Amino acid sequence: MGGSMPVLPGHRFQVDLKLSENYAFDVEFGVDGEAFRMDEPAPLGEETGPNAARVLAAAVGNCLSASLIFCLRRGKVEPISLETRVEGEMVRDEDGRLRIERLDVSIDPRIHEEDRRRLEHCLEHFESFCIVTQSVRAGIDVQVDVTAEVVEDEAPRSELAAV
Hints:
Blueprint: E1 16-21, E2 24-28, E3 36-38, H1 52-74, E4 81-92, E5 98-110, H2 116-125, H3 131-138, H4 157-162
Antiparallel strand pairs: 1-2, 2-3, 4-5
């Protein structure tokens, strides 16, 4: 699938993950470019790429930053620079499982003095246009379907483990 599609209501997208080794997955986004590696930190994985929590944080930070840039550019403001930092906080839920409790996003645009009023206007509106952040805030309906392919081993597991 080449190039990206416009985002419209009813538009569906697909992301494919393939187990590479241990807990590392190669992720294909369906747009031109190389596969993206995700991995878990030790002791599960080898941290050869970001884990899912960091990718979620990056998605929120990217979406908010892009929404702010979009608003500024619509107002004919070209920022000198823009940097974003997302800090996540992990907690354990009542069952002892790790969860992302909060994400703190700091966006630091650098603009010219004459653009201050247009920045203030954008600061009032840009968050509501961020697809990812608003979806996370509202809670995303996630449906899971596992379709296992069961194959007969040529050798019993006990023989495979001895090799």
